[in-house]
Amino acid sequence: MTDKRSKRPRGRHKTQKTGAWTATVAVQPSEATVAPEERAEQPVNATQAPAAGEPPCPVGDAPGLQQTAPETPSAPLPPTLVLNRQRSWQCMHEAVAGLSHRNANPPLPCQDAALGRCLPRPTLVVADGAGSAALSEVGSQAVVGGLARLLHTLDKQVAALLDGPVEAQTLPEHELLARNFALLLVKHAKGVLDDLAEQQRRPARDFRCTLLLIVAGQERALWLKIGDGALVFERRSWQADGSLQVGLHTLGAPGKGEFANTTQFIDDRLSPADVQSGLLELQDISGLAAMSDGAAEKLIAQDGSRVARQLEHWLAALRQGRLPRRDLTRSFYSEAFCAGSTGDDCSIGLLASELSMAAESPAD
Predict the structure, then answer these.
(1) How far apart are CA 108 and CA 97, in angstroms?
(2) In 3-state terms, what secondary structure has residue 341?
(3) Measured between alpha carbons, how far is 73 from 241 in angstroms, rounded to an integer?
(4) Which residue, 158, 175, 251, is CA-closest to 212?
(5) In this predicted structure, what is the pLDDT of residue 298?
(6) CA within 20 to 30 Å of 94's CA: 27, 63, 79, 141, which one?
(7) Do the beta carbons of residue 299 and residue 310 sit within 8 Å?
(8) What is the tens place of the pLDDT at every residue in 178-187?
(9) How far apart, in whole angstroms, are the C-alpha atoms of residue 88 and residue 22?
(10) Is residue 48 a contact partner of residue 336, using CB atoms and an 8 Å limit?
(11) What CA–CA distance (Å, rounded) separates 347 from 90?
(12) Pairing relation of β-strands 123-128 and 230-238?
């Protein structure tokens, strides 16, 4: 990954700048940190999933990616999908070296790191090491492992943010707490890389990487994003005609810089304004995904407005316990996936869960 810097910040934040990481805050909508016009608001009409063995559907292909305007429901309303606070999640992750790394002489290691776990709570962490950083694969692995351990240690604080109901009048304060917690996670990640630099007697820039993170609770999920790659959520909703629509949507701004192949990394030049974060209500969310830019290149439109239906297929298979890791590996090395790509490393983390249906339809 090229490590040139953007000349402008990604996303817009209402930020109180005091110069300190822990005191810098942003008041944001519950589902994103960017302005409404920068978010992918139109639902993705996900059609029937491809049959087993069918190659991934790049975002440039038309099937399953057309955008549709929201429909106005008519009375009587269809059944509703409700959040089961005791529902179980299934998780999977994979990271593979891209063909450009495999073809190098000598071959280069995979600089991506990914982790998906369900206990003590559903969590996805993905980091993509900078291509020009000498030991970025070490840095990305250390950041992923370090943040996973920190979330486990601070599970009581995470529960306070994500597990209980929040009244409308206290929502801004709750979002402020979530923002500060996200910045705390980033500060810890930077500390992990600084410790590595000291131990290895190397500059900290030799370990720099991007970061994608989602941690889910009973009511909502916290997400954060530094640099490129993509965060995706799967939403299910009933239409006026009684059909169930599955939509795939991205979180945050794309994270690319002003110039081609540029992004932001965890290093000394990172500022709180470079960190995108927010809360996502889980009422009708059945799937979550985090992926590096190597995977997103073939699965997500550049502006984040469209998501390939292959992701829905993976989530459905994972939900049913039919997604072995080797299927992800084969997909990333398939001819359909590699054709026309940059050959970058590919990594992904997936979480899938069932939603409960209300016993009765709402009254007219």
Answers:
(1) 8
(2) coil
(3) 8
(4) 251
(5) 95
(6) 63
(7) yes
(8) 999 999 999 9
(9) 33
(10) no
(11) 17
(12) unpaired
CA 98 from chain centre, in angstroms, equals 20
The answer on pLDDT for 360 being more than 70 is no
Cβ neighbors of 181 (< 8 A, separation 6 or more) are: 157, 158, 161, 222
Q: Which residue has the tokens 């707490």?
A: 177
- The structure tokens 């993705």 sit at 44
Say which residue the tokens 């240690």 belong to.
Answer: 153
pLDDT reported for residue 244? 82
- Residue 66, sorted as left (phi over 0), alpha (psi -120 to 50) or beta, turns out to be beta
The label of the residue with tokens 């889980």 reads 282
Distance CA 103, CA 126 (A): 24
Give the pTM: 0.78
Are 235 and 288 spatial neighbours (Cβ–Cβ below 8 Å)? no
Taking alpha carbons only, the member of 176, 146, 144, 143 closest to residue 161 is 176
Q: Given the DSSP bridges, would you call strands 220-226 and 230-238 parallel, antiparallel or unpaired?
A: unpaired
Determine phi and psi for 62, rounding to 5 degrees. -75, -40
